[in-house]
Amino acid sequence: MQTGRSTGAFGGVRRSKRRQDEPVAIASTPSPDHLRLLVKVARMYHERGLRQPEIASQLNLSQPRVSRLLKEAVARGVVRTVVVSPDGVHAEMEEALVEQYDLRDAVVVDTDGVGPDVIPALAAATATYLDATLKGGDVIGISSWSATLLEAVNAMRAKTVPVAEEVVQIVGGSGSPEVQLHATRLTSRLAELTGARPVFAPSAALVHSRELRDLLSKEPAMAEVMKSWSRLTLALLGIGTLEPSPLLRRSGNAIEPADQRQLEELGAVGDVCTRYFDADGRPVEADFDDRIIGISPDQLRAVERRIGVAGGESKIAAIRGAVRGGWVNILITDVEVARALLNRGTRLR
């Protein structure tokens, strides 16, 4: 069967029977006239912003041919896509972190200060990330004693429809009365914003004996919380150092100085949910491990998305250990920490 043809602009041939989605055949040595047409079409589309039907009309080409010419322009390198990151966006650094530490995702933010001054920027980034990624049906675990997570939750916007089923404390949420409100508010506020049911852990994170831990774990309310840890789809985590945060210290859940000295001798650099690890992320077994009421390392690693939120130079070793050991697989941190993790000109600690 003969295929109908007609002559188009610049002496080109228009094939009316060819499908638009067929691969573009590229001649090894295109004629100057063909290249001239290729550039003209590409400039009209990409620089002048004309739509394909308008280009076809002006040049007396079929729209399918315009589409093929645009694809050929990309294939030949006439058109190249360049993504320019605005100031404050560190996409290349985020991609490098994901690749180097086998992360699921990374967010790197600029901050206005050091130490505690990085918290507002990290909190804002965390709130934005959760707003974009919570889609529905999640069971969210949250560590109870993080000032950064509390500020992040305070910065979140309420969802118009429920995006989570439960928000569960994954480490004991009871503490001294003057700071108990922080742990309770962190869980209840996140549940309110996401339309979820709050699930509180009615116990301290660190109790006085293994026998007391076993006894409290058998209490119906606490047993129900611990059962829910196996249903988590997302964990929202702070990353701590050997030096307890002011909030944790005031809560009464901080480790004792003697325990801290033991951890130093064992090579610990940080913790997630009071589970300590060394510089390579390997768990460090301390004497107080059997007094912790909180999610176990194996239960935590079984959670699909484990979002670690931490920054500041003092936490570089702890953050590095957390990502090396798989304690978190999504990291939200500041640009100086990111540079240190990638060994890009920041002094390692």
Automatic annotation (TrEMBL):
Q: Where is this region: Disordered?
A: 1-29
Q: Which Gene3D superfamilies match?
A: 3.40.50.1360, Homeodomain-like
Q: Which residues form the Sugar-binding domain?
A: 91-343
Family matches, as InterPro entries: HigA2-like_HTH, NagB/RpiA_transferase-like, SorC_transcr_regulators, Sugar-bd_dom_put
Cell division among the record's keywords?
no
Which segments constitute the HigA2-like helix-turn-helix domain?
Answer: 37-76
Gene Ontology MF: a single term: carbohydrate binding
Instruction: Print the keywords alphabetically.
Output: DNA-binding, Transcription, Transcription regulation
| Origin: domain of life | Bacteria
Family under the similarity heading: Belongs to the SorC transcriptional regulatory family.
Its recorded name reads Sugar-binding transcriptional regulator
**Organism in which the protein naturally occurs:** Nonomuraea terrae
